[in-house]
Specification:
This protein has 94 residues and is mainly α. Helices cover 80% and strands 0% of the residues.
């Protein structure tokens, strides 16, 4: 797996860009659900906020691949998918 993530390719960047926001969304939603269950509270579980948190999860790998690793193709793949996610997010808001 480590060898796969250390390749400079559009495909790797696209896969990372597609999967990481889903993990971020699920993680944020799970944390607030657990807090609701343990604390007996009802937080504002607005799914739109969780979608933005999921999209924001792509910011770290974009910086990591562009600045630290100097992998232009992988960074561009992540950036492209992030841009598409943002466009879809705002398009669905109308």
């Amino acid at each position: 797996m480590d060898k796969l993530l250390n390749k400079d390719s559009h495909f790797i960047g696209t896969v990372i860009g597609l999967i990481l926001p889903i993990i971020g969304f699920a993680l944020a939603f799970a944390i607030t659900t657990i807090i609701d269950l343990i604390g007996g509270t009802h937080l504002n579980n607005n799914l739109n906020e969780f979608k933005l948190i999921g999209i924001a999860f792509n910011l770290w790998p974009i910086r990591y691949y562009f600045v630290k690793k100097k992998y232009e193709l992988t960074g561009r793949g992540i950036l492209l998918v992030t841009f598409i996610y943002v466009v879809i997010y705002f398009w669905l808001q109308q």
